[in-house]
Amino acid sequence: MSIPSDSVVRARYRDPGSLVPDSLRRDSLDLPELSELQVLRHYNRLSQMNFSVELGMYPLGSCTMKYNPKVSEMIASSDRMKQAHPLQPAETVQGLLSVFHDLERYLSEVTGMHRFSLSTAAGAQGELAGVLMVRKYLREHGGEARDQILVPDSAHGTNPASAAMAGFKVVKVPSDASGLVRASAVKELCSEKTAGMMFTVPNTLGLFESEVAEVCDAVHQAGGLMYYDGANMNALLGRARPGDMGFDIVHLNLHKTFATPHGGGGPGAGPVGVTRKLAAYLPVPVISKGKGGYSLDYGLPHSIGPLKGFVGNSAVLLRAYIYIRLLGADGLADVSSLAVLAANYLWKSLDPDAFPASHGSELHRKHEAVVSVKSELPGAALTVAKGILDYGMHAPTVYFPLIVHEALMLEPTESEPLEMLDEYAAALNQIYREMKAGNLGEVPKNTSVTKVDEVKASHPLTLRVRW
Amino acid sequence: MRESQPRHPLLPNLDESLVSRMLERVGAASVDELFSDIPDGVRLRRRLKLPEGASEYEVRRDLQERLGTNRTPPDTLCFLGGGVWPHYVPAAVEAITSRQEFYTAYTPYQAEVSQGMLQSLFEYQSLMCDLLGMEACNSSLYDWASAAGEAARMAARVTGRGRVLIAGNAGPHRLSVIRTYTEPMGLHLETLDFDRSSGTLDADDLRHKLSDDVACVYTENPNYFGVLEGGVAEIVDSVHAAGGLAVVGVDPISLSLVKAPGSYGADVVVGEGQPLGIAMNYGGPHLGIFAVKDIKLARSMPGRLIGITSTVSDPNRKAFAMVLQAREQHIRREAATSNVCTNQSLMALAAASYLALLGKDGFRKLGEAVISNSHYAAKRLARVRGVTSPHFKGAFFKEFVVSYKKAKADRVYRQLARKGVLAGYPLDRTFGLKAEAGLYCVTEVHNHRDVERLAGALEEVV
């Protein structure tokens, strides 16, 4: 890229480098020298070595890899979005703030919460905000000694990690044989040390936690707060709301349920919502509406503070707002109906002898289905996962949840047409038959590289190239 | 499901006949039956109170109107900085990050079909290591502030110490986030004085406060005032003498002309990657930089790392994969180095392609354009009556503080905005400056006519 250079300024500063003090002047910098076309060819080629939602079915369980509407990209690429500076006066950015204000109301309605902070950058940061609020609220209400957070054994790893970051000890809640958390098990673990519980509903097995209301009661009675991990909210839009179940705090993954692109690993957005009693504890800033219009409010009296430098992942928030507008109340309810229908359909299309359900086979799945790969051989789930790549489709999540042997976790989402679900199930069944018969061979074969040696890579000396 | 089903472009299976076929295989009489395990007491028995679904055209038109009221470049001038800066984003960077193969993918769990993102992130790590003079860089955190928070946590973990010293001239936004991140660890945060004349860190105050219980010292170079810390090498040395880690926060654009932090001994570098080809986006998505000097610290780092390896069948066939995953939450759970999962990968891709497009010569020229434009502007503003520009005497890179003899900083900032110039973000009161002052940022996107407009507007409001 050529650099703009103002001739009037250039005439004044002939040796700009000398403006840097001697002690700090850089004497060498190694960067590649390439033409624009070379750079584009490089990345275009790399992009062809990358699987994506728009290339094929991507039923990565827990990640909700749905289609990301193009119009969102179009709108988010406006200069009015891209060139807005987070420190510009609120009165010069009322349009965007009004969008955020509406988004906050929509998310509150969807979840049954009182107020949201849109500032957290991803689900895990929303979780951290949530447990920090638990900590602060309890400390201000005589609960300093409460240092335990209950986390089911089926939970995502981010839950215990977030609880630990907030200074809590993690108490594991076992799931029962049908894969559900029982209120009786929670009661047994509750004590005067209980600060709260992080609970994912539906859980990572794709099952609705039928005793969720009783679990919330049990933790509340013990003096703790209930945190809802919204990673799986795509199952429940318009069907049930965490606020009505008894939760105090909720985070949502906008890159999952609300169709913002996953960006090859990020960015996402993980807004966090709370009931009225916790509203003053939200991470700042929140969007406020007053006489002078909308503003960024840093003045919440009990806030845990900010977790991100500026506002939030605003361009992601805008896309989520667009998605909600495109679907509306009925459309969002259809999203969950069809996502759940697709997960059950895919599950029932699999050979049950090859891929037995790990838990609760009599229960309907919600947004995803978890099965085991039946095999005497270790690594069967990995083999099946690598095998499906050869069909031009992405693997399910494997070896999670940890409580499932040789787990495949399938989340087709509402975006996948019926014929793709059929194709995917047929491919998995076929791979299993070939694996069983011993003629699958080395997989994958049709990918840009064959099976990657991930063990060899786990050495820090492989982290950078030197040129 | 609804009574009469219209088709919807985002919902391919909405058609009643498809639903029936699917229900048949599932063995359920209705879609509602699939939700029958939701107990009555928690079931929502009404429609969500949300607007009706709208067409793509209607949504687009509504947002064009609403966003249209935002005042932004190109028809408004932006001289704001403070951790997010107006720089030009090359068209080729946008072309690359707009490829759906990258942006609609997720975390590269299946390495064989994710080589594109994995190699791009590996190249990002490598380019950043060179730029920063570090040995290991992760593939991104959320932003500068949260990266600084993670750095303080890591320093406390690896040193087993409980005090964190933070430069008093560091960004207040970073300081607040470091406080939020470290509060549960019970760390004791103290700020370090700065010299009121130069704007640089007060090395005597640092020496006074350093002791063997200090986990790390966090400094920024350039600091929040835009001033370059000429004595940073001595600061780092004294931190090391006390056995702590030196954490340095950077604006990566400054490293076009300024020494790599690794060359003056920084142990951890954090920073904001936004100026490397990423739009300001009203605060995000941005790019948190996190890198370490000592390769041994890589095992204590937060965030994803990509490494180079080979295929199983051919040791000569290069391939890329996520490495050292045993640090991360999905494996280590409550003992993980951080809870981070979703990161800012697409932004790391933008930064890597940006550096590749500029190259060695382009990146140096960019730095020269930035530093000369900002000095030109500071001098021009000095001719405006009633202001001191730059307020601090220390050498600066692209931002500088302007103080006002009579006017209130907040009023100047708001009045300038009314005149179509976003500039002079008021300095936080916690800095304890005697004068009213604001922060100005000038980059390669500004020319001398823009500076003239800024000076003219400032003249009218101070």
Describe the structure.
The complex is a heterodimer of chains A (467) and B (462). Chain A has 13 helices and twelve strands. With 467 residues, chain A is an alpha/beta fold. Chain A folds into two domains: 254 residues, Type I PLP-dependent aspartate aminotransferase-like (Major domain) (Aspartate Aminotransferase, domain 2, 3-Layer(aba) Sandwich), CATH 3.40.640.10; 109 residues, Alpha-Beta Complex (Aspartate Aminotransferase, domain 1), CATH 3.90.1150. Chain A starts with 6 loop residues before the first helix and ends in a 30-residue tail after the last helix. The model of chain A has no long low-confidence stretch (mean pLDDT 96). Chain B has 462 residues and is of the alpha/beta class. Chain B has two domains: 115 residues, Aspartate Aminotransferase, domain 1; 264 residues, Aspartate Aminotransferase, domain 2 (3-Layer(aba) Sandwich), CATH 3.40.640.10. In chain B, the strands form four sheets. Chain B has a seven-stranded mixed β-sheet with strand order 2-8-7-6-5-3-4, sandwiched between helices. A four-stranded antiparallel β-sheet of chain B has the order 11-12-15-14. Chain B has a two-stranded parallel sheet with strand order 1-13. In chain B, helix 10 links the parallel strand 5 and strand 6. The longest helix of chain B is centred in the last third of the chain and has 38 residues. The radius of gyration of chain B is 26 Å and the shape is globular. At the A-B interface, helix 1, helix 2, helix 3, helix 4 and helix 5 of A face helix 1, helix 2, helix 3, helix 4 and helix 5 of B.
